Each structure stands twice: as C-alpha cells, then as structure tokens.
From TrEMBL:
UniProt topology in membrane: Peripheral membrane protein
Domain of life: Bacteria
Protein localization: Cell membrane
UniProt keyword Oxidoreductase, yes or no: yes
Organism: Schwartzia succinivorans DSM 10502
Protein name, entry field: Ni,Fe-hydrogenase III large subunit
Binding-site positions, Fe cation: C212, C503
Length: 506
C-alpha cells in the first residue's frame, strides 16, 4: 500500500477541506484522531488527523490540522458535513481536550461520570499510572410525550458479555429511540503502548479483541513495515492472507450460530456452536492457541503452515462447509425464523454511506466497502472475487452476506493452500530497521476493516498509535436500525451486527 497523503490545513478550514476531500461524501471517512506533538520541534502543538479512503485511486488521504499552544483548542464540528465524524470528535474532546464547536451531541463518549472535568489522558503530560476519579455530568437522551416510557437495559447483562447501557424510549412495544452508552471498560491500550517498541506492543495489539486478533495484528504490522519501507517475503504474505480468511470463516460461523439465539432457535444455535468449536480447535492446531496469536510479526510471520496442517485445514473446512449448508437449509425451512429476520433492523444504503459503515453491516445495505478489494495487500490481488452484496439492509440480509462470504472464503483458502504447496521460497520474515516516521495499515476483519495508525519516534518507539475497529464504525448504526421495531427484536438486531465492546474499549 502507498503511504498516506497528508494535507496541512488550518483548524478553521477543517469542515470545508473535509467536504472537498470526501468528494461530497463519496470517499468514506476512515478515521479521525488526535495526537500530542507539542514536544516535536517541527510541530509544537496538538494535531487532528482526518483520514479518507479515495475510492478512485485506492489510496488513503488525510487532513492534518495543528493547534499551537496558546490558542484555543477548538475547531468547527465536521458532523453536519460528515455524520460519521460524530463519535470521533467526541472522543478527541475526551482524550485531548480539543472541542468540536457546534457538535450536536457534545456529551463525553469515553470518559463517563466518574472522571474529573479537565482530564485528557492521551496528552503527553498525563502519566500512564495516573488515577483519575471525580464527577462529571452525563445525561441520557430519551423521548418525551404522552404514553411514552423508558426501558433501561444494562450496563450489567444476564449473558456473559461486556457492559453497555441501552435506554429505550417506547410507545407500546415499538422502539422510538435508543441511546447507547458504552466504553465502560476502556483499557487505555493506546496510552499503554506509548514508548514501547513494535515487538513490545505486539502482544497488546493481538489482545485488543479475541475475534479480530489477525486483523488487528496485520494492520499494525503493515503500518510498522510501511514506516520501515520494508517489503515482507511472499510466503509470509500468503500465510497472512490464509490466516485472515481462516479467522473470517470462524467468526462468520460463530455469528450464524449466535443470531438465532435472539429468537431461541436452538437447533441452529447448537449446529453453529458445534461448527465454530471445530474451527477454534483447528486454529489451535495451526497456531498453538485458539485465537491465532503469535504468528504475524513485524517483518513477516513466525512459523510456517506445514503440509500436515494444510491437509488438516482442508479436512476441517470440508466438514464445516457441510454443516453451514445444513444451517442454511434450517433458516430457509423455518417460516417463523424468516418472518422474524425479514424487514427487521433495517439500515438504508444512504445511512450506511453517511456513517461510513464497513464490512457486513455496510454490504448488507448495498454500500460496497471491502478493504480486500479496495487496497492491494497480502495476496488478495491474486484472488479475484466480488464482495457479497445485499440491498435490503435487514437482519436477513446480514445473514445472507455471512453465508455467501463463508463460501467465498473457502474458495480463497483452497487457492491459498495451493499457493503454499507450490511456493518454493521458504523465507518467513525479514528484520526491520529502527526508524522514525508514521504509517497506516488496514485489513478486513469478519466485521469489516480495521485501521491502525502508528507513529514511531527517533528511537523506533511508539509515540502514537490509533486503532479504529470495524465495530467503532458500525456501533452508531444500531440506534438507527432499531427504530420502529419491537423491543423483543433488539437482541436479534444487535446480534446481526455482531458489534464488539472490547474493540472500542481500547
């Protein structure tokens, strides 16, 4: 991938420049984040980056605005120009104290009531071990009117999931409005990784999310390798691509077993769960752990996929394919299930585009976004494929996308195994030089694209890392998807997006 093109603008020019660089919303807003560069003699200020995907050139383009010390840390909000900027701006305000003036929802995003006012943890003068306890105001948004009532759900749930608070405004059973309050277990991983070498940070990157270990690690390593201007061995690229597709297959199967849980469709839950366990055990055979950790490293991969493992992958995936075919028949045969998933949890294409959604959530609404197609990384250019696309934007469409992508991934994996069989070069990794610079990486997880920005200082240590998961891009769509549906459909809609709490609590 080509390095990111960065254009310097004044803070006051951000909305107009963003409108231009986004090509009136045609080029999605990939990420927006802050960086403390007050100690850098060439900058001496706080910075905001706005990163866009140029769908014509297949390159990343960014705006950078610098706020010099002694001037107000304020800029005009981009949210009215780019609705996808809403969460990013609130997080920048929390973490750096840079205020998006005129933002339609200026509440804290990450830092809840228990944090003191004026605490901005990603500033360099805030120590990693700082204990911050205090109080701040946080208002839940609800609808008001005769006959309306509120239904609070969470933050502690009956299931074994992370905390999130959902406040529904109801008229009878119909959901009029949902306000989701998340980030209860934010771990400060971006702060923790400051000052570490890429290899020291690697185990943390792998654990941002269990379901996206490969996607996060691959994006991170791409960024580091881009800074080092280093090309990794072809065999490593094949193995990385294979692992990515294996992770995708495992997660799609898990999701296909989880979604029926929203309606108590137990035979489908059991078949999906059993098939996912087969694939998790396969991942353990490949990597020595169930989450494929420890293989992708800066400069390549740490181990090969042996002929014996390649044979096992083929054997297990053949059995998984039969199970998913049976699961698809279950879905098709059960009219009650079909009635529950059709026209439920609709996200329109225009909404998906406005929010810059990614992955299954975007493609189920007819918004084509797939970093495997949009960027040349791994050996995906040698694996011609068309991303699965649906247009209805409902739960049924998100199920269809996963089933289609499961079969596409199986064909990719077979091609990748053949490439490994034929590849003569056995080099797995190269050593990276320790250099200063900034770079980005992007890879397509099962949920959508994961974007990493990395800046290394003069000693080759992390000065700033920013992680934007697929879940971060798609969470804002959930409150829109539930509007007009009945409250018993919420678990079904929520599971169909398969949004992750850990991915945003980084």
């Amino acid at each position: 991938m080509e390095p990111m093109k960065i254009e310097l603008v004044k803070p006051s020019e951000l909305p107009e420049a963003a409108k231009r660089l986004s090509a009136e919303g045609t080029h999605p807003l990939t990420a927006m984040f802050g960086r403390d560069e007050r100690r850098d003699e060439n900058v001496k200020g706080l910075s905001i980056y706005c990163v866009f995907e140029n769908t014509g050139t297949h390159e990343m383009e960014a705006l950078k605005a610098v706020f010099k010390e002694g001037v107000p840390y304020r800029f005009p909000t981009l949210t009215y120009v780019l609705p996808a900027a809403a969460w990013y701006e609130r997080e920048i305000q929390d973490m750096f104290g840079i205020v998006p003036e005129g933002h339609p929802d200026p509440r804290p995003l990450v830092l809840h009531e228990s944090f003191p006012e004026g605490f901005h943890p990603l500033l360099k003068d805030v120590a990693k071990n700082t204990e911050a306890r205090g109080e701040r105001r946080y208002d839940i948004h609800v609808a008001h009117g005769e006959g309306l009532f509120e239904v609070p759900v969470g933050p502690i749930h009956a299931g074994i999931i992370e905390p999130g608070h959902f406040r529904f405004s109801q008229a009878g059973e119909a959901m009029l409005q949902l306000d989701a309050k998340l980030f209860y277990t934010h771990r400060g991983l971006e702060k923790i990784m400051e000052g570490k070498t890429p290899f020291e940070a690697l185990p943390i990157v792998e654990r941002i999310c269990g379901a996206c270990s490969i996607a996060n690690t691959w994006s991170f390593c791409q960024a580091v390798e881009q800074i080092a201007k280093t090309k990794i061995p072809r065999r490593a690229e094949i193995i990385r691509t294979l692992l990515s597709e294996l992770e995708r297959v495992t997660n799609h199967v898990g999701d296909l077993g989880n979604i029926p849980g929203g309606v108590g469709f137990n035979p489908a839950i059991s078949l999906g769960g059993r098939t996912k366990e087969m694939l998790m055990r396969l991942q353990e055979a490949v990597a020595g752990n169930r989450f494929l950790r420890g293989i992708i490293v800066p400069g390549g991969v740490s181990m090969d996929i042996t002929p014996e493992l390649r044979a096992k992958i083929r054997e297990v995936l053949a059995a998984a394919k039969k199970n998913i075919e049976d699961l698809s028949e279950m879905f098709a045969d059960q009219s009650n299930f079909r009635n529950r998933v059709r026209t439920t949890g609709i996200v329109r294409k225009s909404t998906a585009a406005d929010l810059a959604m990614v992955g299954v959530g975007a493609r189920a609404s007819g918004f084509l976004h797939d970093s495997r197609r949009d960027f040349s990384y791994g050996v995906y250019p040698e694996l011609p494929f068309e991303p699965a696309l649906e247009k209805d934007g409902d739960v049924a469409a998100r199920i269809k996308i996963r089933i289609k992508e499961f079969h596409v991934s199986l064909r990719m994996i077979e091609k990748l195994l053949t490439l490994l069989d034929e590849e003569q070069e056995m080099t797995l990794s190269v050593e990276l030089p320790s250099v200063k610079g900034e770079g980005f990486g992007i890879s397509e997880s099962a949920r959508g694209s994961n974007f990493h920005y990395v800046a290394l200082d003069g000693e080759g240590r992390i000065d700033r890392i920013f992680v934007r998961s697929a879940s971060y891009a798609n969470w804002p769509a959930l409150p829109i998807a539930v509007q007009g549906d009945i409250i018993p459909d919420f678990p079904l809609i929520n599971k169909s997006f398969e949004l992750c709490y850990a991915c945003i609590d980084r």
